[in-house]
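Per reviewer request, we include the raw input and output of the structure prediction for the construct analysed in the revised manuscript.
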Amino acid sequence: MKILLADDHGVVRQGYGSLLSAMFSPVIIVEAANGTEAALQYHREQPDIMILDINMPDINGIEVARQIIASQPQARILMFSMYEEVAMVQRAFEAGALGYISKTSAPEVMVEAVKAIQAGERYLEPKLAAMLDSDPGSGIEEGAIDQLAPREREIFKLLVQGLNNQQIAGRLGISAKTVANRATTIKQKLGVRTSAELVHVAISNGWRVV
């Protein structure tokens, strides 16, 4: 496995690089110290997973993730940040990240997150999931998913897991256009507009996002 670790603090890269090297073997750790270097290293190295800080020089991690996902939708990005605000978590997922953990989390949370991202699953640190779940501005009622038709629930589940329309189409044996149309209907029924809000719905209704 190859992991790109992008953070502007050398001691952070060294510490977590050592942790990941000890926990995942064999593994290659590639480093980047700013946003521009992170984007270049991703396209050059094609890592299996990118661990990306948000607050970096020149280009912030949210924009780096957005640029990478635009050209490589299959990219597996784990946001690793000092920010623990609900709005920042939502922005990260909307940019295309598969996971989000805070820098105050225990080392085992990083390991658990990397395992989930490696499997192509979403991961949200439990304490952040609790914050997202209790956000008073969500406007999402418990049981909202029950109103979805069976096929819509299938598509909803795959969207929450981070699959794009083409991947869902292949998984379910339907066209990408059909998936896109159903996704629009799902968002309308749930009263949301973004993929980040779909993840919020899942958490609010007791679904695991991993």
